[in-house]
Amino acid sequence: MLEFKLAAIMPRSESKTKQSTIYLFNRQQSLLLPLELPESVIQQLIQTIKIDKIQPHICVVIKRVVNLLKAQFECVILQDFINELFYSYIRLMDDKKNTYDFRLKVSDAILMAFGLNIPILVTEKVLKNNAYKITKELLEQFI
What we know:
The chain is α+β, with helices and mostly antiparallel strands. The protein contains five helices and eight strands. The chain has an eight-stranded mixed β-sheet.
């Protein structure tokens, strides 16, 4: 699996479904992974990035509860893409190094990753049909 970071958030003004696209980027492989998310999730993501210090976000509260249980969040995993649907999980590790994966909607998983400051890992299976290799030639095509 490869780790991705948030590269950009792009609103889609022509979208009738009120969706926007976030772009995750892996620097080592120069891979760009677009994810379409509801506009409401994008707004929550922006708020999480901007004001997580002002008011406790739900992610902070959940992190405190998990810490009380002597566990910690490890990562978010984008595991699969079937029938236009991402299958995503959040991974917890307890104090005995046991791991537990909990399935989440991709929008909730992305929010949790940014709210908890944990890595987003993407499997090769997801990358194969959803990511774009950023090359000089590709960039020149659009300039």
